[in-house]
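Lab notebook, bench 4. Still working through the backlog of constructs that have no structural model yet. Next entry is a single chain of 291 residues. Request: give me the structure tokens for it.
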Amino acid sequence: MTDFHGVFPYLVSPVNPDGQIRTEVLGRLCDDLIMSGVHGLTPLGSTGEFAYLNNVQRIAVVQVAIEAAGRRVPVVAGVVSTSTQDAVAQARAYQKMGADGILSILEAYFPLGDAQIESYFRAIADAVDIPVVIYTNPQFQRSDLTLDVIARLAAHPRIQYIKDASTNTGRLLSIMNRCGDNIRVFSASAHIPAAVMLIGGVGWMAGPACLIPRRSVELYNLCKAARWDEALALQRRLWRINEAFARYNLAACIKAGLAIQGYDVGDPVPPQAALTVDERKAVEAVLQEIG
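Model written out:
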């Protein structure tokens, strides 16, 4: 279970108005995604609204994903905090629950220097015995990881992967050139997955894969087979969902798409807003076009 590759959907977190996690619908979504051929599941990524959930809700989401996966595919659970001590506690708890890997995310209120950012991720990796994916998203995070920090973290035996959600695909190539075999790169929804695979990526972790799992797996398989003409033709079609994802609130877009597909995942956690009627129609049109 330690070789992570392929399509890892960033799961939504279905939450009732009273704050209870809709475990049944989340479990059904996880099972359907696995049956569609995805290679892993990632609860509590950006699409999972980690910033809006409390610890009890987060544990429930991870538990559902682990139970639904049933060891069929690896579960890489998101760990996020402004506090190193809290992040370490989350990582240890998720490993104990049966997570196969940790997606480590840094939230920051006050600015942090490189040394503090590095120490946060290193502490998480030191606390567990499972692979760690470091995640950076300069669009949303106050403190980013520099190439120097990434290179030093890549030398840690458990920090084996990175998902860099910058829109700069050249930065991904710089990471690969700088770190070599020490770290493997996952594409984000901000990147063109086929392009990331072409330069040496191992797959993608992203919310849109919840909506188009079979197509995403098909694209991955074409890339792995180096059937680039077919891969790029499919990629051009699928990019429409990435464009919609970038246009609207992340969770609202994926939750609306899943609702259209019959999953009663509810609205985004307030103060986020659900898509408007017109926005929802736009998402529905894209899904119909992709097929």
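Notes after review: The mean pLDDT is 95. The CA atoms of residues 78 and 278 lie 32 Å apart. Flag for follow-up if needed.
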